[in-house]
Structure formats: C-alpha cells, structure tokens
Design goal:
It is a single chain. This protein is α/β, with parallel strands linked by helices. The chain has a single domain (about 55-334), classed as Acetylglutamate kinase-like (Carbamate kinase), CATH 3.40.1160. Helix content is about 40%, strand content about 20%. The protein has helices spanning about 1-10, 30-50, 55-65, 80-95, 110-120, 135-155, 205-210, 235-245, 270-280, 285-300, and strands at about 20-25, 25-30, 70-75, 100-105, 125, 130, 160-165, 175, 180, 190, 195-200, 215-220, 220-225, 230, 250-255, 270, 305-310, 330-334. Strands 7-12-4-3-15-17-18-16 form an eight-stranded mixed β-sheet, sandwiched between helices. Strands 1-2 form a two-stranded antiparallel sheet. A two-stranded antiparallel sheet has the order 5-6. It binds adenosine-5'-triphosphate and magnesium ion. The site of adenosine-5'-triphosphate has 20 residues, from helix 8 and helix 10.
Length: about 325
Amino acid sequence: MTVRRKARRTLGPRKPAATTGPSGTGRVKTVATKQAATKEASRAATRRRKPAMPNVESAFRRTRASVPVIVLKLGGELLEQPSDVRRIAAAIVALTKRSALVVVHGGGKEIDAALATAGIPKQQIDGLRVTDAPTLDVVVSVLAGAINTRLVAAIRRGGGRPVGLTGADATVATMKRAAPITTVAGDRVDLGLVGDPIANGAPTLITALVAGGYVPVIACIGATRSGQLLNVNADTLASHLAAELGAARLVIAGGTAGVLDDAGRTIARLTTGDAERLIKAGTANKGMVAKLQACRSALRHGVGDVVIANGREVRLESLAGGAAAPAGCTQVVR
Ligand SMILES: Nc1ncnc2c1ncn2[C@@H]1O[C@H](COP(=O)(O)OP(=O)(O)OP(=O)(O)O)[C@@H](O)[C@H]1O
Ligand SMILES: [Mg+2]
C-alpha cells in the first residue's frame, strides 16, 4: 500500500508508462499499469457475463458463413458390412472438405438382432421402438458401444477427425420422455423410455467441435436433465440437431432409393403436405413414417432442405448443401 502511494506521487498520471520494476518490498505498480489492471479486471468481468465459449460460437458462425452445415443421418443397415462402412467413412471425409459436417447414426437392424439374441421381444410402432429397461440396455450397448466406435475407427482410418458422442453428452441434446403418441392407426401408445428432444439453443459442444475441424459422430441416445438415458429415433435426433445448428441440408441415408411410391419408384421431390398424404395413404409406413415426420420438423425449423438417399447407391459426397439432389434421391422441401 505504502509503496503504491509513493509511486503514484512520484510518477503523476501523464508520465509515460514506466512499466513495473523491482523495489525493496516487491514489484512497484505505476499508474499506467494500475489503469491497465483496472481495464483488464473490467474485461474479465465482461467475459464472465458473456455466454459460454463466445469465440467458439463466432468461429462456428464464420464456418457456417463460408461452408454449408450438413447433418448426415446414417441408417444402421449402412454400418454393418465392413465394405459399406469403409465407403461411408470415405464419403464423410470427402464431405468434410466442402461442408461443416455432423453425423448422426441409427442401428435399427443390429439392435433387432441383439434383442433376438437376448430373447427380448421387439415392438415398434410407426417406426418408433417401444423401449423398456432391458431393451434400453441393448440399445445403448449396440449404438454407443459397437456401431459408434466402428464408424469412428473407419473415419480415422480414412484420414478424418471423428469424435464419437451420444446425444447424452453435454449440451448435444436435452430430452424429455416422449408423451404417448397417437399412431397412424389412431391408437394412443406409450413408447416407454423414448426421448423427445427439447429446443435448447445451439449445442455448444457440437459447434466447438465443428469450429475446431472435428466431425461429431453421434449415436441416437439421449438423456434428460436428471440423467435418465433414453432411446431416441435417429431421424428425430438428426432433424433436431439440423434445426438447432441452422443446417443448410439434412441428408438421410438409408437402404432405399429415397421415398418410394406405390409402384416402388423414387419420388424425386416431396413437399411436407405430400409426405403427410403418403403416410395417410399407407404408401409410407414403418420407419418411413418417423423419417417423414422428422423431415417436416426440420423444415419447419428452418433447415434448407432434406435429401433422402440410398447410402449404398448414391455418392454421399455429392450431396453437399446447394448441390441439386441426384437421380434416385427424394428431396423434401417445405
Ligand atoms: N414409401 C416408402 N419408401 C421407402 N421406404 C419405406 C416406405 N414405406 C416404408 N418404408 C420402410 O422404411 C424403412 C426405413 O426406415 P428404417 O427405420 O427401417 O431404417 P433407417 O431409419 O434407415 O435406419 P435406422 O432405424 O437404423 O436409423 C425402409 O427400409 C422401408 O422398409
Ligand atoms: Mg429408422
């Protein structure tokens, strides 16, 4: 204290900043450095008031301004055979060169097989899995354990920078337990341990990873704020994340050549109204019901468009935002 007062008297406010220097009792602060310290303290206070990771957020916004954000949803059947996984991984690496990419994957068929092995009956309604506690255990182990790590390893082998996550990781998504649904057939059904994503703003963990040049690879599991794990349909999670990230395009890759009409031909372009009619008519059923409902939600929340493609037949890397959807795909628009 004494030292500081003495220094102020000797230096005066307008003298050039004679930085700090040693004294008999420690380092002497000049007026200039004190002012700088006050400024720094006020900057630190401003930083504390700002939302978390503002620099990452602005880096992500810059990324989004320069390249399109694409959310790529992969159906589980594309991630079973090693040759498919290799090809998908190569497409992911190629896509990351042209877009900011977030990958979400399902695992329907592999979960079905694991349930059968465990002797647990499968129950699905309009493409949504009725999930009790033993089913959830299988879902978590297959999705987060086997499939996610398999895809992450393949992307690494292909030269990419994947980070394996689930929707339960910090800020990726927050779920509430899904309310009972009214099925296409008009019944009320409680799906059990199934999650419904809550609008929660930009998922900062994902934006940080994307801004840092990583590829988030997200298994479709979520958690409530209190930490209850829940099974989430992969199309639902992908649609939610595409909306929260302001994605230019949601690409849904599966095992069919887009949405098929009654004669089994690809429908090139659908509005959400057309999709509704296909569901009512029964032309779109099972997993396609959940998919088309997810498309509608994404488009309502500002996603540019949705392309549904056969992940084995279409070069996924050709689907970077802005590019027209090639033949054999369905483009869903508002
Ligand atoms: N009109 C339709 N056009 C195309 N597929 C349809 C149609 N109606 C029903 N489907 C069914 O929807 C299925 C796709 O949904 P499904 O949930 O089975 O797979 P996925 O969503 O790609 O994978 P995952 O559930 O692992 O994420 C198709 O394999 C097909 O059997
Ligand atoms: Mg599905």
